[in-house]
Amino acid sequence: MKSTHGVKPHPPIRKRVFNGKPISNTRRVERTIQLVKYLSEFRTINQIKSFLNIHEKSVQRYLNLLVQLGFEVEVKYSKYHGYRIANVKEYFGVAK
Description:
The chain has 96 residues and is mainly alpha-helical. It has a domain at 26-89: Arc Repressor Mutant, subunit A. The chain is 41% helix and 8% strand. It has a two-stranded antiparallel sheet. β1 and β2 (82-85) form a beta hairpin. α2 crosses α3 (56-68). It is elongated and about 70 Å long. The two termini are 40 Å apart. This is HTH domain-containing protein.
């Protein structure tokens, strides 16, 4: 058993320090987070495309990714379908 005499205990809260390989595609992660925030209201494919500055096909891929991550993406059917995330508060709600 090691002696702990003279060893400082870790502080209860500290900042995490990066200690790994960098993510190769941080832009995708950034866009996904932006999209989660943006879809608090119904948005069309064209609105999402313009907001993220990506192609329509990529918007569909991002919407599929959000579903895979567990977000409930609602679709409002009209001339132009609208998309929004219904359960954002479940993931990012205020801690009680």
